[in-house]
Write a structure and sequence with these properties.
The protein is mainly β. Helix content is 7%, strand content 20%. The longest helix has 19 residues. The radius of gyration is 25 Å and the shape is elongated.
Length: 357
């Protein structure tokens, strides 16, 4: 890309080159495009560093250089871009710390994920969060604890993704003040879910691959009816699955895999009629598979209950799940006739074909 002359494009306001195979470096003479408002070179094969000179493009509102092969640090000069509202620099090979200077911008969406950024989150970044709607810092090597006041005075933030870093300490209860939050991040104590009760717009709760401990609190089912996605897989959660899960009427994805859950699968899980995928593998669940799962006839396509202590026959009601594509039940103590199981599943499939012919 460095071979292209930009010296005379002084009226250029928008430059979109994303999703191509451009190579080389971003040319330094791009600074001659003093009227540039939006620069997007996301998803190419660019190398070198993010130019310090970009900080001189005073009218720049959106900068996207993510998903390339860029190295070095995030230049502190980007803090000079007072009009900047969108910053996408993740999925490169960046390292070092997040510059304090970014706190001088008015960013509404920031993505710094999938790099090797280190150190703690600078205090100035919490200033960004005051106007930010989407913040993604996953995954890096960020460390330290989150500010206890992270949720205070952030009326606009909808997504805050900090997973797969090295944060320690509790998740701040002040997140309960963020009523517009649609997705957030976990820490090492599952009790923080109680503080999300006021996040009435919360739609996605993804905390997998952490070290979350403690019982699965019933609060998770009482926080919001907007919740459509829960991923708590690969943690250290124990206890039983609360029967209040039936309140999550918009839930489409539930992943509780690879934890230490015990007890039975609550029968009222069959009331979640929008469910697409249900993953409870790798726990210590006992009892039978509730026949009410057959009530999820319209959408359910992935049911994974392997590696538990489930017993008894497979419910014939499963045959009603017309869209079921993945059924994984290995490593349990289930019994009965396989031929009956297959006969029921095939009967359900044929019934579905006739209904759509």
């Amino acid at each position: 890309m460095g071979k292209y002359p930009l010296n005379h494009l002084f009226r250029l306001r928008v430059l979109f080159l994303s999703n191509n195979s451009f190579q080389g470096t971003v040319p330094t003479n791009i600074t001659h495009c003093s009227e540039l408002r939006e620069l997007n070179v996301v998803d190419n094969k660019l190398e070198g560093k993010i130019l310090e000179e970009l900080g001189s493009l005073s009218k720049l509102r959106a900068l996207g250089v993510a998903n390339n092969n860029l190295t070095g640090r995030i230049p502190a000069s980007l803090g000079n871009l007072s009009s900047l509202t969108l910053l996408l620099v993740g999925d490169n090979n960046l390292e070092g710390s997040i510059p304090e200077e970014l706190g001088r911008t008015t960013i509404e969406r920031i993505q710094l994920g999938i790099d090797r950024l280190t150190s703690s989150i600078p205090s100035s970044l919490y200033t960004i969060f005051q106007t930010c709607m989407i913040s993604n810092l996953k995954p890096n090597q960020l460390e330290g604890s989150l500010s206890l006041e992270i949720g205070v005075g952030f009326p606009h933030i909808r997504q805050l993704v900090l997973a797969e870093n090295r944060f320690t300490g509790p998740v701040p209860s002040s997140l309960s003040n963020v009523s517009m939050l649609e997705g957030s991040v976990g820490g090492d104590d599952l009790s923080f879910i109680n503080s999300l009760v006021n996040c009435t717009q919360l739609q996605r709760m993804a905390f997998s691959h952490n070290f979350l401990k403690g019982p699965l609190v019933s609060t998770i089912a009482n926080s919001t009816t907007q919740l459509s996605w829960i991923d708590l897989g690969i943690n250290q959660i124990h206890g039983t699955i609360p029967s209040a899960v039936e309140n999550l009427v918009n839930l489409t994805y539930l992943d509780l895999a690879m934890n230490h859950l015990t007890g039975s699968i609550p029968p009222n899980i069959g009331k979640l009629h929008k469910m697409l995928a249900l993953h409870m593998l790798g726990n210590k669940l006992s009892g039978g598979i509730p026949s009410s799962i057959g009530n999820l006839i319209t959408l359910l396509f992935n049911l994974d209950l392997r590696s538990n202590n489930l017993v008894g026959d497979l419910p014939s009601s499963l045959a009603a799940c017309q869209n079921l594509k993945y059924l994984t039940l290995s490593n349990n103590n289930l019994n009965g006739s396989i031929s009956n199981l297959l006969r029921n599943l095939m009967a359900g499939a044929m019934s579905s074909l006739r209904a759509h012919s």
